Amino acid sequence: MKEELLQVRNLCTYFYTDTGVVKAVNDVSFMVERGQTVGIVGESGCGKSVMAMSIMRLIQNPGKIAAGQVLFKGRDLAGLTDKQIRRINGDRISMIFQEPMTSLNPVFTVGNQIAEVLLLHRNMSKRQARERTVELITTVGIPRAQGVFDSYPHELSGGMRQRIMIAMALACEPELLIADEPTTALDVTIQAQILELLGEIKKQYHMSIILITHDLGVIAEMADYVIVMYAGKVVERGSVKDVFMNPSHPYTCGLLKSKPQLDMENERLYTIPGQVPGLIELPDACHFYDRCEIRSSNCKKGFPGESLIEGSHFAACIKAGRHKNE
Amino acid sequence: MSEVLLEVKKLKKYFPIKDGIFQRTRGHIKAVEEVSFSISRGETLGLVGESGCGKSTVGRTILRLNESTDGEVFFKNVDIFKLKRRQLRSLRPKMQMVFQDPYNSLNPRLTVGSLIGEALVEHGFCRKRELKERVVEIMEQCGLTANLTDRYPHEFSGGQRQRIGIARALALNPEFIVCDEPVSALDVSIQAQIINLLCELQEKYGFSYLFISHDLSVVRHISHKVAVMYLGVIVEMARKGELYEKPLHPYTQALLSAVPLVDPENRKKRIVLKGDIPNPANPPSGCRFHTRCPYAGHICSRRVPGLRTLENGHQVACHFAG
Prior knowledge:
The structure holds two protein chains of two kinds. By secondary structure, chain A is of the alpha/beta class. Helix content of chain A is 32%, strand content 25%.
């Protein structure tokens, strides 16, 4: 049953700017199994989107994948030529973005934009592509698919546009779907619709999803496995249950405690003091040191390696799992 | 708690849709339709709804940042909409606003000190000599240090900018603050800091807030009373505990069930509403929610349900609720 689909090994994506090297993704490793939903969570600037872009090889100057491997079905994507990567992107791996308005081309009808994928990857005739596109539009829950085929992005609402993006991503029945904040720009009721849809198509096509979001609630509902990122590093990873029930990195604990809950009432919210550090010239120490409540002098001696909590649950903290009893 | 500070009665706001070379009015966007509520001193009313439901328009119209189409707003028993410019101006310091986007609501060419001090001088609250002292005092209350007075907004992070926004509102000793999505643009850990700050300030000075947000969990945390808006009307209003424990309107129920919980062991069954919010230029007849309501009956498309008061002051606008 367990089949490795994607393996990211020690991935480093750096941006070489005038002010210094920004280590947006710094030595990140994880794995996605077939049919699994992996959630990547973190605050803005933690490198979660850059990670997605790196997998898709969409990093542009001055950014570069400086080291590491992205193995997709055993093949290293980081080493492929541009031509080779274009055959995989949109076919085996596809991506949906946060802002469906800016990621659709305003001067083409949405139908043509979906059909383009099929014409490019599947060598379909125009008529076949149109038929398949109408089918896809229906699959993502849009009524009157024929009519919507010929409409332009501005004629559709935010939720509809996101559905179109999903239809486009699904066109070639990819094995891996990367969803970068797919519901952040949407209202809660529309978000519920889109999440429901993602769950359905995942089952239907038996694909894996990498779900990137800052919303812990979305992760808790959707993901099987969670990766928590902070300042370009993975600070904790494990199955959803492990991470949410037994958070072991002080950052994860803080995040969970500082989110106001719908089903709970408490007088004061917990806050993590300070703010996310800049990513230029981070010291060789735990990046969370300045904001950590349980820090000690040992935390300054290099970035802590991942320590095993149990099973597949890891945390990059020298005190991982221990502080809660103190 | 009992003294009513702000009372809104049947507030209406229509925006004209203009078209053609003569800019003739072709219709109206009915952004706010007969909204009534009141806020007591020291109380927070949370106003929730999805984008386009008119919640921000309510906030702006109350402060007369938009002119209203109809209705009355009493602030300390004075009808704000009847005030002349000058009278309004003298009332302004009492009613302030914190905006959503701290990136666009601060003038990039002014230093933090002058951003906060501007209003103090303008309204004659303070002499030039004392200005600096007062500004520093306000900044410290908002968690900003004194050495930041000469910096420009671009040098700050989102959370700090929102603190500047709050400091600006705080400077004039207001009694009522409209917070329009003050934490929506911020990360979770920063969000918590700002929410706590708002709560502390309320405790200290006894402000009343109108807290506008789309995030139900944030609203639950900060509000005493919550009103839910849909397409320009309030569909349900109750004390916080009532509304979250016993939502009566099907829209509120759907809204609450749509919020993902941070609890992977308890993945609940969501009520997923079909379709999108209808066009406010041409809202559905009868109950505005009937096109998406899972329980809609015949009466719903014909008669507009009024806001009925049930036990515990729980108000709901639905033919079938209760």
